[in-house]
């Protein structure tokens, strides 16, 4: 079965074709960074308009890249939530309409299920059950995964998501949006131990995270070390970035270790944009578990993960009705299980 995947939940237009026999056969991405960078974050209306401009172009591109015709597509999968309402509407309306026009089933996919299953696209995919660490711009969650659609959230952020904290700290350090990769780059030349950042919520039991205190701690440091100009010295900034990153990584690693102990599982899957972070990967590799993650391009938003997740559900006979449904808020626990 060949499935066209459409991802438009936020600021990337991702389109891909996944073949359940051959694997990923085409994958195209258009990033909207240039559209939003001058505003320092995603402007929802600009995001929707840019998705409208790019979706059809990229669909034609993946068909051409794979040498396929639209009649070779057996199903369509689109992100129907969570995400920005207008942005979701673009992919969902188009995906649902293409399914109807091509006379093939169409299905709305949960964006975080897409992230969670992305490591399945790699060569050595994890077997169930496993603990999933989902760390993106909008979510930080630990999930007990028993199978596709069998998700129990066992821990989550009580305030900012990990990626959101990276993005806000980047702003304090005058780095461009999206901040995660820029903070990580700056941290490479910093001393992570110079400042004693807190490790929030690690001194009490439980699997929830909190990142807003780290943000405040960072802001205070930035003010303290700003002497003449608008910002601290380059070295001070690098040390702040490195200290912040290590605090996030340590905190997340402590919670992952606890989640593994609590569930008794031996596999840990990390997914979502922040799972591209090299320090986080390095740290999680020290846990007593087999750790799985996707290549960096499949950690951040992409169409391949939506095509893959949709294909699993379509194969199991699930599909949407003709109405277009988008769910800007959509708890993972509500998803239907695949037997
Ligand atoms: O999963 P994603 O592409 O989009 C959402 O679903 O939110 O995640 C984007 C987030 C952004 O906050 C970005 O700053 C962060 O992932 N990110 C990183 C890295 N690459 C992306 N954070 C830390 N280190 C990275 N290398
Ligand atoms: Zn995402």
Summarize the structure.
By secondary structure, the protein is an alpha/beta fold. The chain contains eleven helices and ten strands. Helix 4 (111-117) crosses helix 11, helix 5 (162-172) packs antiparallel against helix 8 (234-263) and helix 8 runs parallel beside helix 9.
Structure, explained:
By secondary structure, the chain is α/β, with parallel strands linked by helices. It has helices spanning 33-36, 44-66, 85-102, 111-117, 162-172, 179-187, 212-225, 234-263, 278-284, 296-299, 303-315, and strands spanning 2-7, 12-19, 23-31, 75-81, 106-110, 130-135, 140-147, 150-156, 267-271, 290-292. Zinc ion binds next to helix 4.
Largest sheet: 5 strands, mixed
Q: Specify the oligomeric state.
A: single chain
Structural Rg: 20 Å
Distance between the termini: 19 Å
Helix fraction? Answer: 40-55%
Low-confidence blocks of residues? none
Q: What fraction of residues sit in β-strands? A: 15-25%
The general outline is globular
If you average the pLDDT, what whole number results?
97
What strand order characterises the main sheet? 3-2-1-4-5
Order of helices and strands: EEEHHEHEHEEEHHHHEHEHH
Structural class: alpha/beta
User: Number of helical segments?
Assistant: 11
